[in-house]
Amino acid sequence: MLTYSVRYKKLDAKPNITIHHYSIDQYKDVQFINGNISINSKELINNVNAVFYRCDSDGINCEYFQTWKITDICPKLKDPNQLWSRWYSSFDPPMLCPLDKVHYIIKNATIDIGLGTLLYPQATDYQWKVVQNMYADNNILVGSYSLHLSFFGYRKRIKYTFKP
User: Taxonomically, which superkingdom (predicted)?
Assistant: First the structure.
């Protein structure tokens, strides 16, 4: 049986969002993203569109896969059982509404791979580019960032304790 881990490739941002000095760190079999992020806008984020692109094994040829449109983001940020919960719980100050802070520290951020493979079991066959577009009311684009990642499968050794 394979165990899966996330492998991050790249993180970048567009207008009004700046990522400062980020690093991809690893502890045992898990990778984490650490760094600083700034949201330079007076608009308050209320809606998010996450656009998923499925890429070949080299991460070069990508095709549109699906879009998640999340409205009224505030109550969803508090829910501990979402695919993004581990990611946003790694932000300091916490990503809670109103999203009016400018500077955030990201510490040991990752996603819950178990939920990802539960929603789409073939996710491990591809590399992924996820673009998160953040909007204020009236569809005003606040900014976006993209995350390039893949899933790494490996066999975990099971220690048998034989008792005669």
Answer: Eukaryota
Burial of 110 (0-12, 13-18, 19+ CB in 10 A): middle
91-92: strand order across its sheet: 17-27, 30-39, 103-109, 91-92
Q: Which residues contact 36 (CB under 8 A, 6 or more apart)?
A: 19, 20, 21, 22, 103, 104, 105, 106
d(CA 161, CA 14): 53
pLDDT digits (tens, 9 = 90+) for 99-144: 878 899 999 999 888 877 888 888 888 999 999 999 998 889 999 9
User: What is the sign of the dihedral through the CA atoms of 108, 157, 115 and 58?
Assistant: positive
Inter-residue contact 8 to 24 (CB < 8 Å):
yes
Instruction: Note the pTM of the prediction, 2 decimals.
Output: 0.86
Distance, CA of 148 to CA of 138 (rounded, Å): 29
